[in-house]
Amino acid sequence: MAMVFGRLTSSTLTLRGRVAEQIREAILSGTLREGEKIVERKLASQFGTSLAVVREAIIQLESEGFITKWPNASTHVTKLSPVEIDKIFACREVFEGFAVEEASRLATPQNIESLKALFLEMVDAARAQDSKSFIRKDLAFHEKIWDLTGNEYLQSALRRIIRPLFAFSSIGVAARRSFDLLEDANLHLPLLNAIKSNDPQASRKAYQAALAEWRAMHLPLVNATKSNGPQAAILEEATEPFAESCG
User: Fold this and answer.
1) pLDDT tens string 13-24
2) With the C-alpha atoms ordered 147, 149, 153, 157, is the resulting torsion angle positive or negative?
3) Which homologous superfamily is 82-226 in?
4) pLDDT tens digits for 51-78?
5) Where are the domains of the chain?
6) Which of 65, 142, 210, 236 is a plausible cystine mate for 167, CB 3.0–4.6 Å?
7) How far, in Å, CA of 162 to CA of 169, rounded?
């Protein structure tokens, strides 16, 4: 892993938050590439922080889906293959489809207003071509649906399954400027209206239609993230001597 970070400057964020923010931005910009190994010792040296702070930041990024860490294995920037994306969408259809039905059955007018507000914020971000904000609002919209179920086990399962997909989307959308954010945002409107009607079957149908479109939109992102490789490789080559000096 090349030296891509400098010493931390002052901020209102906690030390862990500042480290996480810089790593997240490096992932989104392509400086840290999908699948790239994360070496905690080198990050601590580059940031000028303790190993414990870096590990806390890695845990935060793992919960957000940007980092993948398996037991007894190394830590990497999240990378998803077409096969893995298919597996996530297969699980998503089952778990989130059930969540949509439950949310539709249980949603109050106040819940619907909150969901509508998130949808409108997503549309605003899409119109502004603010991909980072769009992904955050998109995830918040879905997490609101999960929360409406009142089922913490379902919520935990969905976060584990879907957050890596949203993180991967962030990387891909940042690399693929032609991605139609507004089209993606508008796919949520029939789902919102179906949940508003408190009709679980209609909500499931609207969700399945949207899910098919989202899956089709995600597959091109696999190639989009690869296009960031040359830029990152140049950066790595230019900074490698500094990386070596960090031990």
Assistant:
1) 789 999 999 998
2) negative
3) GntR ligand-binding domain-like (1.20.120.530)
4) 999 999 999 999 888 898 877 778 999 8
5) 15-78, 82-226
6) 65
7) 11
